[in-house]
Amino acid sequence: xxxxxxxxxxxxxxxxxxxxxxxxxxxxxxxxxxxxxxxxxxxxxxxxxxxxxxxxxxxxxxxxxxxxxxxxxxxxxxxxxxxxxxxxxxxxxxxxxxxxxxxxxxxxxxxxxxxxxxxxxxxxxxxxxxxxxxxxxxxxxxxxxxxxx
Length: 149
What we know:
mainly beta; 5-stranded antiparallel sheet; 3-stranded antiparallel sheet
């Protein structure tokens, strides 16, 4: 499934957490996950006040290839990519609809294990259903999930 997604938008709580040293972007002591949410999600609103994955409403229903809480963001890197520029990147996150459809997808949300929110992307302008046996792949851009310069 291919679409034009929006750039990742950061939750204000992430800015605070990173400033307080509460994220280990390249370490293996904590994991990062990507969850899918519906068009009714609170994923893109109140970015000033939302701070945990549990504070978001309307995650895509578990089943048919999607598990509540989403999928692991793997092969993460936090590395210098140019003078005074660091990139947080990962491999693509993939879901395949098996045994039925994965319905009402609109947003992808990245969060740290334990629930601290990082960012979200609106994958499409209106929610869609991933048909059985089809695959949804969310691939970071050439600039990764984000860069700090």
